[in-house]
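Repro:
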Amino acid sequence: MELALRDPEAIRLEVGEPDTTTPAHVIDAAACDAHAGHTGYTSSVGTADLRAALARTVTQVNGRPATPDEVLVTHGAMHGLTMALHTLVAPGQEVLVPDPEFPNWRMAAVGGGAVVGTYPTKASNGFIPVVADVEAAVTERTQAIIVCSPNNPTGAVYPAEVLAGILEVARRHDLWVLSDECYEAFTFDAPHVSLLSMDTDDRVLAFHSFSKTHAMTGWRLGYVVVPDARARELMEHLAEAQVACPSAVSQRAALAALLGPQDHVAAARESYRERREAAISLLTARGVPCVRPEGAFYLMVDVSAATGDSEAFALRLLRERHVSVAPGSAFGPAGEGMVRISLASAKTDILEGLGRLADMVHTWSDAEAPGGSVTPGGHLAGVPAAAPGTVPTPA
């Protein structure tokens, strides 16, 4: 991303940020409320009216009756997740994350002294985890499991039976479950299922964001649902210590986003669906495999026919073709040999950028790119060869 910012010609496909601005009614409401005086400190965990509105949303959308006290407003979803990790996982204890992973989870855990383990998700299974694999990853040190559906970086949407199975593993081993649901508004072929709706013993914490749903990345506002009273009290104290309180102006914007028209959310979802189909069609026609995402707005593209070094591929693609993508290796071993592109970029940019990417896959020369290597068979290690543009249908 930093390199792309220095290239005025770069087609930006690396950052997961909506290509639209915050809806006008949200901006107008926030400006009006700011002029009316809503510019001071608030409670460390959010204003009463916003927490009440969020509790109603959780009850209606996520399928779990919630009270305002159970909802903590945060400075973005990662603030909430960081607080939870620092509250629930002691130094030396372990948190499990999926591989591929969102790197910020690991950074937040390590920042609190925790150990990070992984459970596998495989391209051949659409990056949906197998419950037995999750349980096999649990150790004596494990204290929490992070689940992300719809998933960043893979776009996988976990079926209800998989989520239920992971939750049962957590019950058997007495673990916390940290459910990242920031992309809940964007599923294409299957509904989003919230782990909150399955939680019967208050071990699930769910993290949400206004950034993606309402194109409010710069407002830095999220919320976390914390049913367990002891965990909630500790996180409330930590919120005060870390940020004092979320932005008052952003909270007014969030309230307007919740209570106002929702047509922009449906329009964004359909736009991402259209871009997904166009991107997959182009890659299929060019003979470049990818993993079809069922949600979020990301697409994992297999570039291993050119090289097994996804970072080398991404750097060279930016340098020579002016296209910025995220190397799969940034998300863990299971992402190696792939790159992630954002479907939240403009459709014209996506198609132009993927065209240039396909050109590089087919013209790559290791002699011209030191450090590159071709994996045996021209596809990801451990993943069966598939027809261009697809992966094998999950069993």
